Structures are given as structure tokens and as C-alpha cells.
Amino acid sequence: MLPGLRARGLPFFLLLSIAGCDVSLPGMLVGESAHFRLFLDPALDPQTAAYWESHDGLAALETDFADKRTMLKTPDGQKIDYHLMTPTDIGAACGFPEFDQDDLESGCAVNDQHAIAAAYIPHQHELMHAYLRLLLPDALPIPFLVEGIAQSLGCHTEAGTSLNGVVAWEQATTEDADDQAQDVYSQGGLFARYLIRTQGIDAYLRYYAQAPSRRDPALFAANFSAFWSMNIDDVWTAMHTVAAGAATTDGSICPCSLATLPTDGQLVTNDLLSQPYWTLPNTYGSSIALTTPSAEDFILDDCEGVAPEIFSISPGVSPGATIYADGNVTLAEVPDARPRYAVAPISRASVGHYLADDCATADAYPLPADFFNAPGSVFVIANQLTTVPFNKFIQLVLPYATQVAGPGSAGICDSCSFEPSVACTPPMPLSVGFGQPVAAGPLNAEFVLQGLPAGIEPPGPEDNFLQFLNTGPQ
Ligand SMILES: [Zn+2]
Asked: What is the mean pLDDT of residues 30-45?
């Protein structure tokens, strides 16, 4: 992970927006762009400071501005002062009573949201506060709405909310941003995202602009009904209902305005600062093959933040080991036509009928030669929203001989004659043992996938992969 970039899976907390009072944030101005001034805290460790001095943090901030602007229609205005700081200094500057010096997620927007304190670039939640200030400088709604909209738009954030949480709207709408329960973030975020998805961002911003600033449930409900011609109790129930094909925890809404991932199978150039994600083309019912560098996970997210994340887990590499562009391969069947995006970096992509219900009709996928430089995995991800187990077949083409291992469900063969296994050359067990030698040429694999009822999160790809024990071209 690059220093200063966001760590995945950390809990968010203390993402305060402090309005009205002037707060002095430490840092030296190191650059300026159309919408930002970037400051580096002198207390940053030399590695992080050197990284951001040699990389264009302003480019990452302008990418975020341009992407979110496609939905918010943010105007130009006073530049946003972005202070990259240590968590310790963030805790002190933002007035957090307790802080964890390892918590990279804490941050605040201060000085009427024109200045941001954050431990990485870009902190999408705090930036949303600044954008809202540029867009609606006179709006002063309750914390439930202020923190909710900051949690609404974001690409691959951890801002999602469990739909199973039982919190009364009367409670969430009267909490402050620093209340222990943090319902203003979780329930406020879900509330904003639900209304943006169902009513549109423009209507939601009009609602936000006129919402009352007093934390009073009766006033909130009356204003809600008057604006939307809907009852808050009905909407609260609807936004906590898990729809067919939806995840039980929703996700932030990503504009998906960045460039579309090329699917010509050629090596992709990744610049994480200007291209933190790739918008996925419509695969029209086909599957997509993606390679990711060694130690990088493959992650496909729903732009609307409704459907479950599709992902694989890289086995990782030893510290100091060489990173190969085509470290791992994922063959994924996208379950529906929802627009999706792939978290960068992606090394190579192509679209084809790679996952098939019978072996003979699968499109052959030639494994890239670079994949054979180090041990790597081929993951198979299919839509498991069925009631019964089902089989999927893939056809790989290997440029080199190697050894293959796999967990329970996978079987391999050099032809489509899996049964009886003696028809394979050499005879291969239906269940792949450890280190099965395989020759260069075609290698077919069969996977048995479990069916999952609606509302159950997919289990992840742990059981559906082949591990290649590559030791380099042979
Ligand atoms: Zn906030």
C-alpha cells in the first residue's frame, strides 16, 4: 500500500465537520491547483512526506472533484485547503477527546468546511463536506443530514450500512455528530443514499437545502412529508428492506464518470492518482477476465452501491518479492446489468464466454506468460443466487508446464472428458490434489458452486480457485 493512501477495512469514526470557528491546521503549502491548496504536516513521517512531494496529490484531489461534480454540479469557488496530517495532529486540531494514532480514517472539515484535515488523499467523506459548502453555503441542516450526505457519494469507501440495523429515525435525527452511537453516519448515510437512488441527486440536494436545522423529530417528519409527499415511517421501512439481488450492507454511490476499462486484453497503464477506479463496460451477459498485480485484490463494486461486492483475495507476496503485473487472474460472471466499476490497479481485461455451463462451449482464456513467473491463482466468480449447487467450466490455455492445486470443488482435465478421469492425460482426479503436474496447452476446469438464497451475502471466492505453483517458464 502506498503511504498516505487509504487502508481498506478500517472502521470510520470521528469524521466531524466543525463549522463556525477558526481552526489553525499545521502544514506547509506544497502546491495549488484549480480547486485545492495542498499542505503537508511537518510531523508526517519522511516516507509519507517524500511520497506526496514526488507524487501529485493535487491530481488525486482534482480527480475526486471532477468525478463528484458530475453528480453534485459543484461550482468553482474558494479553494479547499487540504491538510495531510498525522492522526495525532488530526486528533489535536479537530478536538477529538480520544484518538488512535493508527486510525487513518479520522479527519475533520473546519473553517466553514473550506479546510480539511485528513491522513490520506483523497478523504472522500471530508471532501464531500467541502463540496456541499461550495454548493449550498447557506444550508444548515441537522447532523443526520450533514453527515449522511458526506457518507452518500464515494467510490470504494467503507461507508455502507447494514440494512438490518434497528434504529428509530426519531433517535438518529436527534443525535449529534460526536454521539457514541454514530447513527448520524450509518443511518444518515443510508437515508441519503436511498433517497438519491430513488428520487435522484438533484431532488435530494433541494431537500437538503431547505431542511430545518433544529433537532426535533416532529419538525423533521413534518418537513419530510411536506417536501417528498411521503411518510418518514414508510421510507424508513423501505430503506431497510433487502431487495432481491441486493447486499445486506449497502455501499456508497460512485459517479462512475472515470474512464472505461479497456477490454482488448492488452496491458493497462494504471495511474492511481488520476484513475483510482475503472468504470466497467457492459458485458452483455458475458463474463470478464481480469488480471491484477501480485498481492492486489480484484474488486468489482456496484456504482449505485446496492449489489454485493464481487471480489477475490490475493494470497499476497513476501516482503521485497518482485511484483508481477499479471499476478492473479479472475474470471467473473457479472450477475446483472447494473453499472459497475473495478478498483484499480487492473493489469489486463477481456470480455468473453469464459464461464460456461458445459465444458465444450467455454471460450478459451490464454493465461498471460507473466502469470507464470510466480505462484498465482485463477479465481472463478459466478452468480450464486440460485437455490441449488451448479457447475461452471472454464478453458485455460497454458504457455508453460506447471503444477496446479485447488480446494474441494475444482476438477481439471486437458480435455472436456472429466468423467471418467482416466480420459485425461495424465489421469487427473476430479478433485485437484496438491501440486498436480500439468503440461503446456489446454487445461479445462470444473467448479461446483453452492447456490445461495437471496439476502445471503456471497461467501467470497475462497472455494472457487485454482492455485498455480509456478516456478517460472519451464
Ligand atoms: Zn463528517
From this structure: 94
298 with 150, same domain?
no
Is the pLDDT score of 90 beyond 80? yes
Give CA separation, 207 vs 132, 210, 224, 347, 349, in Å: 13, 6, 8, 42, 41
What is the share, in percent, of the chain residues with pLDDT greater than 90?
A: 59
Indicate the number of domains in the chain.
Answer: 2
CATH number at residue 232: 1.10.390
Q: Are residues 106 and 182 in the same domain?
A: yes
Write out the residue range of the structural domain in which residue 92 sits: 28-239
Do 211 and 108 share a structural domain?
A: yes
Between strands 465-468 and 402-405, the pairing is antiparallel
Euclidean distance between CA atoms 231 and 384, whole angstroms: 36
> Which pLDDT score is estimated for 6?
35
Report yes or no on 250 lying in a domain: no
* CA 127 to ligand 1 center in whole angstroms: 9
Q: What separation in Å is there between the alpha carbon of 54 and the centre of ligand 1?
A: 29
Domain ends where: 239, 269, 300?
239
Q: How far apart are CA 308 and CA 245, in angstroms?
A: 8
Ligand 1 centroid, distance to 150 Cα (angstroms): 6
Q: What one-character DSSP code corresponds to residue 357? A: S
Q: Measured at the alpha carbon of residue 9, what is the angle toward residues 246 and 193, in degrees to the nearest 5? A: 40
- Say whether pLDDT at 287 is over 70: yes
In a domain, 264, yes or no: no
Same domain, 380 and 463: yes
Q: Which runs of consecutive H residues, i.e. helices, occur in 173-297? A: 183-199, 201-210, 217-228, 232-239
Distance 130 CA to ligand 1 centre (A): 10
Q: Are residues 291 and 420 in the same domain?
A: yes
**Bond prior to 420 in cis (omega within 30° of 0):** yes
Residues 231 and 283 in one domain: no
Separation CA 193–CA 303 (nearest Å): 12
182 and 320 assigned to the same domain: no
Type and span of the H or E element at 366: strand 364-366
- CA-based nearest residue to 369, from 291, 261, 289, 444: 291
Query: Which residue type does 134 have?
Result: L
The answer to the question of residue 324 being in a domain is yes
The reply to whether 138 and 49 lie within a common domain is yes
> What is the pLDDT confidence band of residue 458, given thresholds at 50, 70 and 90?
low
CA torsion 45→48→49→54, rounded to 10°?
160
CA 84 – ligand 1 centroid, Å = 16
